[in-house]
Amino acid sequence: MNQQPDWPDPSALRAVTGRLAAAPPPVFAAECDRLRDRLAAVARGEAFLLQGGDCAETFGSTGVEEVRGKLKTLLQMAVILTYAAAVPVVRIGRMAGQYAKPRSSPVEERDGAVLPSYRGDAVNGREFTAGARRPDPERMWRMYESSVTTLNLVRALTGGGFADLRQVHDWNRGFVVGSPAGERYERLAGEIEHALSFMQACGADTRGLTTADFFVGHEGLLLDYEEALTRGDESGRRYATSAHFLWIGERTRDLDGEHVAYFAGIANPIGVKLGPTAHPDAVLGLLDRLDPDREPGRLTFVVRAGADRVRDVLPPLVEKVASEGARVAWVCDPMHGNTFTAPSGHKTRRFDAVLDEVAGFTEVHHALGTHPGGIHVELTGDDVTECIGGGYEVRPEDLRHRYETACDPRLNHAQSLDLAFRVAELYRAGRTG
Ligand code: PEP
Ligand code: MN
Fold first, then answer.
1. Ligand 1, atom 9: closest residue by C-alpha
2. Taking the domains of the chain in order of start, what are their residue ranges?
3. Which of 101, 250, 338 to mutate for ligand 1's pocket (most ligand atoms within 8 Å of CB)?
4. Could you identify the atom of ligand 1 that is nearest to the CA of residue 219?
């Protein structure tokens, strides 16, 4: 099967999927339905989707500080977009389940030695040894445990008042100060605080002003795992309970493949990544198969064409879908089409290319009268040096300082805030221009 590991021991695999099938579901159907309603607002052009987190989560990064750092970064980005672009923001963490990775090659070669590629902590270990790279189904149980641990933290932090708008200054606490985007954020937080005081002085009750729900999603790649956690609700509809939102990756969106078949059978809101080679007819095929009822909120297309291609690739796709009368959410992933290897050997991305892809995506939608519905980004709350550029300039020679990703390069905290400010400007310019 496409991008599935070669589990060496079928009985060990059955034992794990059996335990997963009997385990409590991480999320519930009603939560997935609520997200579908929120995404319907995105599809109708009334809200914006912010989706972000690691390229690959690891079992070693489920601690409070790591999770809180990512959550705070996403909350800050969402408040920047809400305030600066005056649009409601739906937030989905690329978190609590992002443990399996598709690979362009099933093997990796180093100094003449050939071993299976690292497929994410859900499958094997990163270390370049035969033992670590052997797929181990027991890792899927650890994926479940790590996901529920992370989800518990996310739920406790957002439900415990941490996502309250009155904490807008606190979300910046603990981050490196002095970046231009960080300072800009402090000013914006001050304005929001001022606006809240004004509302209070006018007699409005600002106590309930949480910035609303926070959802989680990941690539639904490992079908053994996803199927074991698929459950029916009272009405007989089936839901993936590993996350609220699942997406199909660029390498597994084959119309006749197992992933599309699985996704067609679940009721969650779902996404499909579309790379530069996506043909309008293939996109129409996906639409018919995955959203036959044309239900706004069900389907999100996540376009990752690359900064130099998006202006050519996107218009025929959007026009084809619009001509069908379908209301999907269109989201821009400005990361995966802009990856290259730096002279130092690090896989990296330029902040300017990321921004340019979002600009191209927004331009196309504004020209066609459709809605640039959101962004899907790889980021972390840490002060890593994995992407080049940004307001707090990371130079190519800085890459080696803090290059910590388990897979693709992520925007660091300052770059993430910088991106949110720039996206808000693009969005507003398009609406008023
Ligand atoms: C990813 O989101 O990490 C990924 C592998 O993306 P894509 O499927 O778009 O290549
Ligand atoms: Mn990635």
1. 250
2. 28-100+139-159+213-432, 164-210
3. 250
4. 2
pLDDT tens-digit profile of 321-358?
999 999 999 999 999 999 999 999 999 999 999 999 99
**Which is it for strands 299-303 and 329-332: parallel, antiparallel or unpaired?**
parallel
**For the segment 250-286, what is each residue's pLDDT rounded down to a tens digit?**
999 999 999 999 999 999 999 999 999 999 999 999 9
- As for ligand 1, residues whose beta carbon falls within 6 Å of it are 55, 102, 219, 249-251, 273, 304, 336, 408
Check: pTM over 0.85? Answer yes or no.
yes
The architecture that CATH gives domain 28-100+139-159+213-432 is Alpha-Beta Barrel (3.20)
pLDDT at 396 over 70: yes
For residue 211, pLDDT over 60 is answered with: no
Whole-number Å distance, alpha carbon 75 to ligand 2 midpoint, is 21
Rounded Cα distance between 210 and 131, Å, is 47
Is residue 347 within 8 A of residue 339, CB to CB? The reply is yes
Q: Whose CA is nearest to atom 6 of ligand 1?
A: 249
Listed in sequence order, the DSSP H helices in 291-412 are: 310-323, 351-368
Integer Cα distance of 29 and 226 in angstroms: 15
